[in-house]
Amino acid sequence: MALSHCCFCSMQCGLEIEVGDGEWTAKPRKDFPVSTGRLCQKGFHAPLHVFHESRVLTPRRRLLAGDGRSKWEEAGWDASLEQIAGEIGELQAKYGMDSMAVFGGGSLTNELCYLLGKFARVALQTPYIDYNGRYCMSSAAAAGNKAFGIDRGMTMPLEEIERADCLILAGTNIAECQPTMMPYLLAAKKRGAFIVTVDPRNTPTSKLADVHIRLQPGFDSVFVNGLLHVMIEENLVNLPFIQTRVEGFDELKEAVQDYTPDRVEAWTGVMAAVVRTVARKFAAAATGIVMTARGIEQQTNGVDNTLNYINLSLVTGKIGRSGCGYGAITGQANGQGGREHGQKADQLPGYRSIQDPAAREHVSAVWGIQADSLPGPGVSAYELFEKIDRGEIKGLLVLGSNPVVSSPNSTLVKRALRKLKLLVVIDLFETETARLAHWLVPGSSFMEAEGTLTNLEGRVFYRERAMEPLRGNPEDFQILCKLAELLGKGAYFPYSKAEDIFTELRRASAGGKADYQGITYAKLKENHGVFWPCPEESHSGTPMMFTDTFAHPDGKARLHGIVPQLPAEPADRRYPYVLTTGRLANHYLSGAQTRRTDPLNKKAPQPVAEIHPSVAERLKLKLNSRLRLTSRRGTMTVAFKVSEGIHPSTVFLPFHWGDEQSVNLLTVPALDPISRMPEFKICAVQIERLDDEAEDDALMEIAAERQ
Ligand SMILES: Nc1nc2c(c(=O)[nH]1)N[C@H]1C(S)=C(S)[C@@H](COP(=O)(O)OP(=O)(O)OC[C@H]3O[C@@H](n4cnc5c(=O)[nH]c(N)nc54)[C@H](O)[C@@H]3O)O[C@H]1N2
Ligand SMILES: Nc1nc2c(c(=O)[nH]1)N[C@H]1C(S)=C(S)[C@@H](COP(=O)(O)OP(=O)(O)OC[C@H]3O[C@@H](n4cnc5c(=O)[nH]c(N)nc54)[C@H](O)[C@@H]3O)O[C@H]1N2
Ligand code: SF4
Ligand SMILES: [Mo]
């Protein structure tokens, strides 16, 4: 029996897995505190995809057949890795070291995330590495760094939730996305907490709310400015806290002075009385927590939106003490650790900046290289694909992401990947991305590799190996080490097990913001995880942040006055609806794993657009009609469901499918100027009705357009 963790969301619920002769059982770990002995349906079925018949278990290379088509040819491990390294070497000799790039993922262990960063900078000597977390936590991270001087998604442990008297949950659908967090919210509710949700839709999460604010996507900062206005106007702010612990109050006051509740009502449709009630309830409560997620963050104003919600915690002094805190709820299994150890274009391990000379010295010394041989910053995820499209990058290694499905404006991404001279994908499956690869190398699943992960609370823990890798295949880290060796850099990658990498990661992170120096495998195995920062072995970790000081050099947090901006692509006469995208309870991200998990896939076999009854009426929809959604970038046909709860201007689609079912054919690749986060949550679309015949014609038309 192995003590494992579910491979999906950031709750990282404890799993007990037993693997026997082709059989397995998985049940919740009763002793793991975070998930309180629970699992959601994804957790119960987590091992299923590992044994799926379509697992890629032998390296494959793409061969061009005479008729212009291509097919896979299986090859041995040694020969494959030798050839891949040879092809990388040839590309770099011809086009320069920075013709290669790496794309990583936030569901990988800390060890792998660290290794990918080092592999790019030391083995490939390229600045070009980024990862799917750019699409996920980058706005929250930038805002956390600006406001608090450090980015740890939740500033407090989950158990503080039930001590909060008022909760504001904005752009977060916890009931579907972190289902085992619900018992904490229910406990708070039972104690009498006042709960506010902010979302363009009614969601299973908003069912909890005392007040649900149904906003058109993109209007959060207007609404929050209204709340701040009332708090300041009615002297509800915590002045002693503001005077001693934060900077920037005057700027904030000025920014919100025009946002009277009446104006906010006129701009957003949220009644002035409701704005006042929410402001008063949150400010007057003895304790309170604000939590946000991708709903407000995946926008071109994502950093501003997040900063504004953080303002609520800071002006009311509801942070750094029990029952209080701010949480940007991390998404992927290791979405927190994944952004700390150097797979981000501008970062080195320990959350260090790659442009900071001292940071470069420190990490170079740990890696045994000269600081001046360490490349500088690269570019963000979507910009990396743009570079590939322009022919500036010729080779790419993808490990832990399926960017053809998950990137905005995926038509460009697909086109770009087709231009590569070398695309190596290390994955469990032949994903939509892997289909374009020259080499598809089998990756190891969560059950086959040990390592550490950091959950949404900033709690690091150890995940055991539940079984030996299928077919005796190498683990992901061994593949990277072997490639490094074949590239002549083996001396820098001398690891025989994950713990060796972690030991080096601890040294590399020492003294950095995300300090793991004091965390050891032994300590992690003894305890139910350790919260970073943990600078020394004698240190027991930091569950509650900011009790006395914030992480800026002067110890103070920063308020930011936010002037709400328009989204990149507001609705207009030609594209009159706002498309917003997100998740369903049954699927995970690009669906690579959950579309291969029958019990989950059966419940949601295809994307279904959620629309308001007024849209259905306007389009005269019949029960079996389908919708044709068109944006400036693409078009798709989907089934629909009508929901009273969605904002009338808005249509919602989940993004868990590929090919013609992928909503990222439509999304806009506009980026937040600071975080470089794409605007997944807002783009303008037109909706048309397709009845059976019409649908056939339309599909023919689309097919013709594609040819
Ligand atoms: N079942 C499941 N769970 C998951 C995942 C999954 O794919 N499936 N993915 C994991 C990952 S990586 C992540 S990042 C998290 C994401 O977790 P969430 O961020 O909670 O999920 P989303 O569905 O992307 O968006 C949340 C909500 O934001 C709303 N929203 C859209 N636009 C706006 C807006 O302008 N303002 C406001 N206030 N709300 C808006 C949407 O209607 C949606 O209900 O979930 C994690 N957990
Ligand atoms: N429209 C729209 N698009 C979005 C979002 C949205 O809300 N709307 N959300 C964005 C967000 S928040 C995220 S996080 C991204 C994520 O999107 P992706 O990066 O595409 O995420 P996954 O589908 O998890 O892809 C992970 C891949 O790695 C493989 N894999 C999993 N574990 C391992 C492992 O241990 N080793 C190896 N070698 N492979 C492994 C899986 O099979 C899968 O193919 O999508 C983003 N895209
Ligand atoms: S809540 Fe998240 S970690 Fe827990 S079982 Fe569900 S998907 Fe897995
Ligand atoms: Mo994410």
Describe the protein in words:
This protein is an alpha/beta fold and 707 residues long. The chain has four domains: 2-51, N-terminal domain of TfIIb, CATH 2.20.25; 60-131 and 370-495, Rossmann fold; 138-328, Dimethylsulfoxide Reductase, domain 2 (3-Layer(aba) Sandwich), CATH 3.40.228.10; 577-706, Barwin-like endoglucanases, CATH 2.40.40.20. Helices cover 31% and strands 19% of the residues. It has 23 helices and 30 strands. The protein has a seven-stranded mixed sheet, with helices on both faces. Helix 2 packs across helix 18 (476-486), helix 3 (110-123) packs across helix 19 (498-509) and helix 4 crosses helix 13 (302-315). It is globular, with a radius of gyration of 25 Å. The mean pLDDT is 96. Bound molecules: ligand MGD (2 copies), iron/sulfur cluster and molybdenum atom. Molybdenum atom binds next to loops.
Quaternary assembly:
single chain
Helix content: 25-40%
Number of strands: 30
| Ligands bound, unique | ligand MGD, iron/sulfur cluster, molybdenum atom
User: What composes the largest sheet?
Assistant: 7 strands, mixed
Give the helix/strand class. Answer: alpha/beta
Q: How many angstroms separate the termini? A: 53 Å
Q: What gyration radius follows from the Cα positions, in whole Å? A: 25 Å
**Integer average pLDDT:** 96
Unreliable segments (pLDDT under 50, ≥5 consecutive)?
Answer: none
Principal-axis shape equals globular
CATH class descriptor name of the largest domain: Alpha Beta
Number of domains: 4
